[in-house]
Amino acid sequence: MFARLCTLALCLTLAAQARAHPVPFKDALSVMTWNQPFFNETMLAYSFHRKAAIAAQYMRMDMADGEMKVVTPQLNFLAKRWNELDSQANVYFIGGGGTYEFDRVTRTTALGGVEADWESRKYYVSSKLTGLWPNGDDNTYVQTYRAGIAAYPSEFDEISAWLILDVQHINRRERELTVTPVMRLFYRNVLTEIGASFTGDFMLNFMIHL
Amino acid sequence: MKKLFLLSFVLFVTTASAALAETVDITVKGMVCSFCAQGLDKKFRAEPAVADVTVALKEKNIHLKLKDGATLADAAIEKLVKDAGYNVHAIRRN
Questions:
Q1: What strands, in cross-sheet order, belong to the sheet with B87-93?
Q2: How many domains does the structure of chain A reveal?
Q3: Mutation site for B-interface testing, chosen from A17, A23, A25, A152 by largest number of B Cβ within 10 Å
Q4: In this predicted structure, which of A7-11, A99-103, B34-38 has the lowest mean pLDDT?
Q5: Domain region containing A99
Q6: Of A5, A93, A24, nearest in space to B36 by CA
Q7: Are B84 and A26 in contact (CB < 8 Å)?
Q8: Cβ contact A154–B87 (<8 Å)
Q9: pLDDT at A112 over 70
Q10: Is the ipTM of this complex over 0.85?
C-alpha cells in the first residue's frame, strides 16, 4: 500500500500545496487549521524570506492504540518553484523537532516532510508526506494526496470554488486510508474547506494569510 | 483668440496630468490562484509610488496606476513580484 501511494504521489507531481503553501509570500503571517474527527493540525507560520518560513505546529491524531499529540517548531523551505504563464509548481521541504505525547508519556521527536504541487486556474494536484520519528516509539507517517478542479474560472475579486478529492493515509491508524471529497472556497485572503469522507468523517479546514 | 487660448490651456493641462500619472502593466508568470496572489496586491499597495492596483488572473496581468509624478523602476517591480513568489514576464508602461 505504501509503495502504491508513493507512486501515485509521484504521478501527481511530488508533494504539498495539497493543503496550502507552507511558505506564503515574504512577510506573510499565516494561520491554518485542518480538522477531522481523528486528526487536528494547527499551524502558525511567518515567511521571513520568500523561500523560507518559521512555523509552530500542533498535531493530534487518534491512533489504533491511543491518542498522539505533537508540538513542534519547524522550518518550511521552498526548494523549487516553477512559474509558468498558465501554471505554477512547487516543491517544499519541512523539518523540525519538538515534543511527542503518546499513552501519557512525553518524548522528543523529529519531524520531516516533503510537499509538492502543481496548479493552473482549472486543475490542481498535490501530495504531502510527513514523518514523525519519536525517541523510543514507533514512527508515524501521514500522507495526503489531492486532485482538484475549479468549479468555474474565477477572477481575483471573486469567490473561488474548487472540488477536491483528498486521499489520506496514516500508517498507525486502525483504518489507514481515508478518502474525502472536499469543497474548497476562498475569497481574497481567507480559505475554507468542508468535506465528508466516504466513511462519514467530516473535514473542516480554515486558513488566512495576513 | 480667447477661445483658442482656453482650448490650448485645457489641452496642456490634460496632457500634462496624463503624463504625470503613469500606468504600468505587468504580465506575471505563475499567477493562477487568487488566494496566493494576495501577496502581489498587498506588496504593490504598500508601495508609496502606487495609487491603485488591479489584478486580472485571466490576463495574468497587474495594472498599476502610479501617483502623479511618481516612478517605479523595473528592478523594483521585479523585486516586489519575486518577493510575492512570482516572476515578471513583461512590463509595459503607458
A1: B50-56, B61-66, B23-29, B87-93
A2: 1
A3: A25
A4: A7-11
A5: 2-209
A6: A24
A7: yes
A8: no
A9: yes
A10: no
